[in-house]
Amino acid sequence: MGSQPSVATTAEGAGPRRLFTALFPPPVACAAIDAERQRWAGLPRRLRPAPDRLHVTLQFHDAVTPSQAQAWQAALATLAFEPFDIALVRAELWHAPRGTLAVLRAAPSPALTALRQHTTELAAQAGLPPERRPWKPHLTALRQAEQVQTRPLAAPIRWQVDQVALIWSDLQAQPPRYHRLGAFPGG
Which of 31, 35, 45, 160, CA to CA, is 20 to 30 A from 124? Predict the structure, then answer.
C-alpha cells in the first residue's frame, strides 16, 4: 500500500485510550485527496487533517482499557483478508456536534463491508461493545468546513487496501498524536 503515516509505534500511559482501526491511503492517494480539497471554495486557513492523518475508520472505541487493547491487538493478529481496491467517489458536508466536516464517501464495496464486519467481530472478541452509530464508509477530508463549498470529484480516488492499522488517538499530547499500535496485513 505504500508508505504509512508517521505515527509512534509505542504508547506510554496505562489509562483507557481512544483506539480505532483504520485504512490509510498511500502518499499518491493522499496527494489526490489534498488536490481535491484545494479545489473547494471557502477553505479555512488551516487544513486539517494533515495529509498523513487521512484515513477511513473501520471501528472507533473511546475508552479502551489496556487489557482490552492487548486483546484487540491479539485478535487483529489473526485477521485474514484479500487485498482489494477502495474508491472515494463523492464529497459531502456532514454537520456534527463539533462542527461541519467535509468527507469523501467510499463507493459500495463488498470487500470493504466484509473487512469491517470481520474487524468488528475481532473487537467483540476483545470485549469491546458494538458501536452504536451506523457505519458510513468515508474519509474525513476537512474539519472546520462551515464555509466550504465542495465540488464533484474530478475522478474517483483509488488505492489498494492491503493492511489495517490499530491506532491510539492521543488527545493529551500537544499537538495530539496518532500512535500506531499495530499494522495487520492482508493476503
Answer: 160
Query: At CA 170, angle to CA 168 and CA 173, rounded to 5?
Result: 150
Task: Look at residues 36, 33, 58, 20 and name the one whose alpha carbon lies nearest to residue 158.
Answer: 33
Sign of CA dihedral 83, 2, 166, 104: negative
Task: Tell me the average confidence (pLDDT) per consecutive run of 10 residues in the chain, 187 residues long.
Answer: 38 74 97 96 92 94 92 96 98 94 98 97 94 94 96 97 95 85 92
Rounded CA-CA distance 84/10 in Å is 28
The whole-model pTM stands at: 0.89
DSSP per-residue string spanning 2-22: ------BS-----S-EEEEEE
Whose cell is 504508547? That residue is 11
The angle formed by the CA atoms of residues 56, 44 and 53, to the nearest 5 degrees, is 25
Q: Which three cell numbers stand for residue 164?
A: 489495517
* DSSP 3-state of 183: strand
Q: State the Cα–Cα distance between residues 175 and 187, nearest whole angstrom.
A: 35
